[in-house]
Amino acid sequence: MRKKAVIFDMDGLMFDTETLGYQAQRELAEELALPIAFDFDYYLKQVGRSDKDVMPELASDFGDAELAERFLRKMKKRQTDIASEQGLPIKKGLHDLLAFLKAEGVVCVVASSSRRREVCFYLELADISQYFRYQVCGDEVSFAKPDPEIFLSAWKPLGIPKEDCLILEDSLNGVRAAFDAGIEVIMIPDLIVPDDEAKAKTTAVLPDLHAVMDWLKEK
Predict the structure, then answer these.
(1) Using CA atoms, how far apart are residues 136 and 53, in angstroms rounded to an integer?
(2) Residues 49 and 118 occupy one common structural domain
(3) Are residues 77 and 127 in the same domain?
(4) First and final CA of the chain: distance in angstroms?
(5) Same-domain status, 204 and 100
(6) Distance CA 151, CA 197 (A)
(7) Matching Pfam families, A to Z (predicted)?
(8) Are 24 and 75 in contact (CB under 8 A)?
(9) Phi (first) and psi of residue 64, to 5 degrees
(10) Are residues 199 and 123 part of one domain?
(11) Radius of gyration over every alpha carbon of the chain, rounded to an integer in angstroms
């Protein structure tokens, strides 16, 4: 296998946290009596973006920056509570892929738009922290995806040529960031249906992480 490192997104790629996030936001939208029609399409606009990136739009839509900040803060807590109480939905093939990469000596890192606190919580809850050399998180970079900064920050410490690295993403913004970073990317769609742009900027669009393992075995 020619790849020496794999950079993983987290939300929607390793875990079905997008569904948890939508559940948490729907509950809070009612609890806080938000002045908007909160539905799934509205939630989709946030997918693959950092809190810092989403905040100005929420503040504008709510007409209240403090309410937007409180909403996001409460949503993160509600989401982790749901994961703790109901279990964390792990994406098909994750454990098998990580075990395969470890056996092959492939370095794995995380590049997630979520804050470090959430990233560490979910990795520990899923008991997979040991598979990753390090994480680069959304609160540690200046620019959110689709800016390539987070992937370049994840790649640089590896000391490995870009052509020997692979990024796994589920969102269009993540695919854009990977493409602009100049690193090969595979999309495993979650909530976002791949369009022509996604197909043009990816090496492959695959149904799940098991398929990624099969793809790597053929290389």
Answers:
(1) 17
(2) no
(3) no
(4) 5
(5) yes
(6) 19
(7) HAD_2
(8) yes
(9) -160, 105
(10) yes
(11) 17
